[in-house]
Amino acid sequence: MPRRALRGKAGQGRAAPPYRFAYAPLFTILGSAAWCSVLCDLGVKMGQDERLMKGELHRITICVGAVVVLGGLYYFFVHRPMKAENEST
Fold this sequence. Notes:
With 89 residues, this protein is an all-alpha fold. The chain contains 3 helices and no strands.
């Protein structure tokens, strides 16, 4: 049989069936719609707050900074040691 008659790619026989990923676009659209609606609602509520519109963001800046610092501490002291332990076993 000539080589050009073989149409399949290597490993195609063991590949996942195409219907396995058929719902991925639907879930992507639903997830993005949920996030967009949350962010839109947050923007509307922030736009109605007079103090935020005048630039008084001090408390929000401190909260966001604290969350970033705590996330970094968690990563360096908890997540990295767990990851190194799993790679060594």
